[in-house]
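To whoever picks this up:

The parser on our side crashed when reading a file containing two proteins. I've narrowed it down to the boundary between the first structure block and the second sequence. Both blocks are reproduced below exactly, byte for byte. First block:
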Amino acid sequence: MSVTLSRIRAINAVAAGGSYAEGARALKVSQPAVARHVKELEAEFGVRLFDRKNGILYPTPLCNELCDIAERMAEAEREARRILSRHNTLLNGRLTIGLGNSMPGMALVARFLKRHPSIEIAVETGSHEQITKAVLRREVDVAVLPDVPADGRFRQALLTRQNVVAIVHPDSALSREASVTCERLMAEPLIFRTRGSSTQRVVDRAFRAAGFEPVPFLTLDTRDAVYEAVVNGLGVGFLWRFGTGRTDVVHRVPVSDMQREYDEVVFSLADESSVLLNAFFTAVEAFRKDADTILQQ
């Protein structure tokens, strides 16, 4: 016994039109095809779906129940079309963006929305590893991360370049230094990020290259937690230079062993293409021209 979408649509069309001919006209198929759908379903389930009176087909109570289902199915189809179309239009479209750091991604989002104010933006945040996986799983449409390796699966565009700096409390003696070394930092309580953080990868590389294996005083799972720990005088943390727009309390101190700049890129899956994504990548090009001015404000 087979209940197909075509049969349910045929029943609903006949009920609305009062005849096989009107149902066929509404569905833009042949009258025999519509009649066959109805009669086969009646025969297979041993039911009566229509009563004929004065040449008009009237739905039975059972048929009306099926028509209610048909209407819900039609609404579900319309909603599916709306969801799909929102990802490929600049008018009331929707874009999901993954960010590893608040900045410079948020600055880019702000510029993009000035150009396209009707687009709905959803932002997902997480570690470098989490956001990369979200792109691969198609949970986000596009992401902004530093130090993204070359990968043929991704469409990439450079946003800016930045390095990692130490962040210290203003009462710390380090706040008065023009720059510090990894050796000098070994004397401080260090606040590290957990595995999967792009910041921590850079910090680990720098200390290893300098010949040190530091044991952190604290290991925290988010950038904001590290920032707050430094604000409360718990130690020295590390941050991408443009990793946050906050300018309160904390001092950024360059680390001579961490001067290498890494590309901060916008990337999406290479096989994804839409009007929205193309518009976002166009905004990246415009942002990059003024990135230094925007990020140092």
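<<boundary where parser fails>>
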Amino acid sequence: MKSLIRPAVTLFLLLSVVTGLLYPAAVAGVAKLLFPHQAAGSLIKHGDEVVGSELIGQSFSGMRYFWSRPSATTPMPDNATGSSGSNLGPTNPALVDAVKARVEAVRAAHPDQTGPVPIDLVTASASGLDPHISPSAAYYQVERVAKARGLPPARIKQLVDQYVESPSWGIFGDSTVNVLKLNLALDKG
């Protein structure tokens, strides 16, 4: 038995160093060389100040801003340290009630809209941190944002058009709008 312990411990230590230290350091180093923006967290700066990340949603509730997807993270919305969904199933009465309340709130804020409320304005993503909304959710909010800012809706729609991101490599996923980037562009004028 003693003859097996030494090789087992040696192999354990060797694999721990290779897979726990050397490999992650090599991957991180290559990522920093080839993809420096992404490796640094895809941070978005406003001047010299970091205001967020392209990858993590933020809550916007003012009438002057485009609203993000609801967040199910706890103890507060868009808590990056508490990434999770609500874990409520589609027939759970609590989820049904929450979505109904969100639909009513969105409709109340957009009285001129008669079409259906885009689903991503009333449901949280699986992570609770989705930074994107669909183009239809952004266009749904154009009238409200334009009115709150005293700007022509066509100008706000044009801004949304500029911030629609195509699917990855043109085929993976759907078109999206990064809410933080769009709202920063709104503030720039």
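After patching the parser it read the second block fine. Residues 2-34 form the longest helix (33 residues). Helices lie at 2-34, 36-39, 93-109, 135-140, 142-149, 153-162, 179-188.
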